[in-house]
Design goal:
This protein is about 20% helix and about 40% strand. The strands form 6 sheets. It has a 7-stranded mixed sheet with strand order 5-4-1-6-11-8-12, sandwiched between helices. The protein has 2 domains: about 220 residues, Spore Coat Polysaccharide Biosynthesis Protein SpsA, Chain A (Alpha-Beta Complex); about 80 residues, Sandwich (Jelly Rolls). It starts with a strand and ends with a strand. A hairpin with a 2-residue loop joins β2 and β3. This is Nucleotidyl transferase domain-containing protein. Pfam families: NTP_transferase.
């Protein structure tokens, strides 16, 4: 299995930031770019060969990742934008195994291991990760002429393409058919859908497409005090005179070790403590650790660790 990142766009809505760097190299915290996070995701599930499908300012990407953490980074460069269909069919010519393909301007906390396992266990040739659509506007709820409620940009009961795909070798031939359109959303995907060869993967996790300065501001705020880890992330919410509050995000199927002298407040998710499946934790529970404690997550978990 290989990883592939679509990173050829101009990032026009992020100008002037993207005047001298491609969008994939925009920093989401100091010296930590969108692509750094994406490569971390790949490395975390054992992918060592990654293809960067680049174009605009490709040389800047190549300079940054010429010797990157025991990963083999390959480049397929376009001299001018040719569309995602060309980019991916070009990728298929150079590989002979399944691929995780993702847009180069997104950050997500989904469990990639679960995504891969789900995709492999289904008969679909391509599996797309979908995420709930957030309304770009505040929603007004009313009866008659009376306003009952106002919800600021809520999640809607609709799902959008999150720009993340598991593509099996059995799908490759679909990328070499004759199409009128240049983008996969208007060519390959409709063909696969019409032939019942495409499925979806859903998971309630952070996903953000970084397409504007507002999006960039949002992700930078989320990354204040945050460190990505193999199990999810930890984020310092408060620290003063040795006392602290740290937020943990543990993906389903992952575990984290908590040292003694902490109070744990479970905000969401379920799991169990140490190796005793009877010691379950769930949303709203408070746990005091007397010694080193290992927490395993049954489902994505958010908790706060409070030092005492």
């Amino acid at each position: 299995m290989i990883g592939a990142i679509l990173a050829g766009g101009y990032g026009k809505r992020l100008k002037p930031i993207t005047d001298h760097i491609p969008k994939a190299l925009v920093e989401i915290k100091d010296n930590y770019t969108i692509m750094d996070r994406q490569l971390f995701d790949f490395k975390n599930i054992g992918i060592t060969d990654v293809y960067i499908l680049s174009g605009y300012l490709s040389e800047v990407i190549e300079e940054r990742y010429k010797n990157y953490k025991d990963m083999n980074i390959h480049y397929l460069r376009e001299d001018k934008p040719m569309g995602t269909l060309f980019s991916l069919s070009n990728l298929m010519k150079n590989i002979n195994e399944d691929a995780i393909v993702r847009n180069g301007d997104t950050v997500t906390d989904i469990n990639f291991r679960s995504f891969v396992e789900f995709s492999k266990s289904r008969d679909y040739d391509v599996v797309m990760y979908v995420t709930k659509m957030q309304s770009p506007y505040g929603i007004v709820e009313f009866s008659g002429d009376k306003v009952d409620n106002f919800r600021e940009k809520p999640e809607l009961n609709h799902y959008i393409n999150a720009g993340l795909y598991y593509v099996k070798k059995s799908a490759f031939e679909a990328f070499f058919r004759k199409y009128m359109e240049k983008d996969i959303e208007k060519s390959v995907f409709p063909y696969l859908v019409n032939n019942n060869r495409m499925g979806v993967y859903c998971e309630d996790a952070l996903w953000l497409g970084i397409d504007s300065e507002k999006d960039l501001g949002t992700i930078k705020e989320l990354y204040k005090g945050r460190e990505d880890t193999s199990y999810g992330y930890l984020k310092t919410l408060y620290f003063d005179e040795g006392k602290s509050i740290v937020e943990y995000y543990i993906r389903s199927g992952e575990n984290v070790e908590i040292k003694s002298g902490k109070i744990l407040k479970i905000g969401s998710g379920t799991g169990y403590i140490e190796n005793d499946t009877d010691k379950k934790y769930s949303k709203g529970q408070v746990i005091r650790t007397a010694d080193t404690t290992l927490l395993y997550a049954y489902e994505n978990t958010i908790m706060e660790e409070i030092s005492i």
